[in-house]
């Protein structure tokens, strides 16, 4: 008789216990960028809603930002680092192919031999990380998972690029996910649209730079294509996430989309017909677009400004380069 293969099982439910944040210490106003792109403060504010963005000094890395955010999340969660069974870092800012940012962060935080890996899903990376943390815990692989979105996008900026350079900031946001006696994370909606692969891209490759074919690769985008895709197609994904969670827009306490552009955030709210009572993350105004870090940073700020939102439902959706997307409803810690 053949033996029966054993599969692991964990708790039925998971939730986010606490959040942590780290923003670049340099405050960069629009006036510091407009000459390079032949623009104005008014033009940037009107198109993006950004007043200033936070960037990190040259010596500060995405690992440093991730470590600071992760340490705060662990402390607030009231657990010890050695209880972390996995560290997941969503990033497009690791300047080396290896080692991963996550392994260094796990070491820095005292997480011992926790599983550690990076996700490269750009602005949807944090939503992907939350989905994976939920699965790792409910299958019994880990008791607690640290999910971090960490970016130092200023390393990949061409100051003269008018499509994206003035949008980008540096920061990290972290969440501790763990077992729960109630449903704190809904089914995640994850996907991609490779037909638009080139709408947010790099100007070259590391190999091309080595061979003298291109300079240091920097980010650029087709702004109007991204705008239309985000507002119309991603609104459908957001609605699907609500439907899978079994709630409606009227049940939400907060809506926190990826902080791509204030116009996109505002249009999202209109398309979803969000009630005026719903708090909306608008961290982009003073932090900038921090890709994978933007959702946890915006959530962290919203809870600082509205602590009464704790315990309410929040719809979060990330979307960006690839093009990839991810969304779920969470209970705010």
From TrEMBL:
Tree of life domain: Bacteria
Domain Beta-ketoacyl-[acyl-carrier-protein] synthase III N-terminal intervals: 117-194
Keyword Transferase: yes
GO molecular function terms listed in the Swiss-Prot or TrEMBL record: 3-oxoacyl-[acyl-carrier-protein] synthase activity
Keywords assigned by UniProt, alphabetized: Acyltransferase, Cytoplasm, Fatty acid biosynthesis, Fatty acid metabolism, Lipid biosynthesis, Lipid metabolism, Transferase
Gene Ontology BP terms: fatty acid biosynthetic process; secondary metabolite biosynthetic process
Pfam families named in the record: ACP_syn_III, ACP_syn_III_C
Pathway annotation: Lipid metabolism
Domain Beta-ketoacyl-[acyl-carrier-protein] synthase III C-terminal: 242-330
Family per record: Belongs to the thiolase-like superfamily. FabH family.
Identification of the protein by name: Beta-ketoacyl-[acyl-carrier-protein] synthase III
Originating species: Subtercola lobariae
């Amino acid at each position: 008789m053949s033996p029966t293969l054993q599969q692991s099982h964990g708790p039925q439910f998971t939730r986010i216990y606490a959040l942590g944040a780290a923003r670049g210490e340099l405050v960069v106003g629009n006036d510091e960028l407009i000459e390079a792109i032949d623009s104005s403060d008014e033009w940037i504010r009107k198109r993006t809603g950004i007043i200033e963005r936070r960037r990190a000094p040259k010596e500060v890395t995405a690992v440093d930002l991730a470590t600071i955010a992760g340490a705060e999340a662990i402390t607030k969660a009231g657990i010890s680092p050695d209880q972390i069974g996995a560290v997941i870092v969503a990033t497009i800012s690791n300047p080396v192919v290896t080692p991963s940012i996550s392994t260094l962060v796990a070491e820095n935080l005292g997480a011992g031999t926790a599983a550690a890996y990076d996700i490269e899903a750009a602005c949807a990376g944090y939503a992907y990380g939350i989905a994976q943390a939920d699965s790792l815990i409910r299958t019994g692989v880990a008791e607690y998972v640290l999910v971090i979105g960490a970016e130092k996008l200023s390393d990949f900026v061409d100051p003269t690029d008018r499509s994206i350079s003035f949008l980008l900031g540096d920061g990290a946001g972290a969440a501790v996910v763990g077992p729960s006696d109630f449903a704190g994370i809904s089914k995640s909606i994850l996907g991609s649209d490779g037909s638009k692969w080139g709408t947010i891209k790099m100007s070259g490759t590391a190999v091309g730079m080595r061979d003298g074919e291109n300079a240091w690769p920097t980010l650029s985008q087709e702004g109007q294509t991204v705008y239309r895709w985000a507002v119309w197609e991603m609104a459908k994904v957001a609605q699907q996430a609500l439907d899978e969670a079994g709630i409606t827009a009227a049940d939400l306490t907060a809506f926190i989309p990826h902080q791509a552009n204030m116009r996109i955030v505002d249009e999202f709210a209109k398309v979803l017909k969000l009630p005026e009572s719903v708090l909306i993350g608008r961290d982009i105004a003073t932090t900038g677009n921090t890709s994978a870090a933007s959702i946890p940073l915006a959530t962290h700020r919203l809870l600082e400004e509205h602590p009464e939102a704790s315990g309410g439902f929040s719809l979060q959706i990330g979307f960006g380069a690839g093009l990839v997307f991810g969304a779920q409803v969470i209970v705010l810690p």
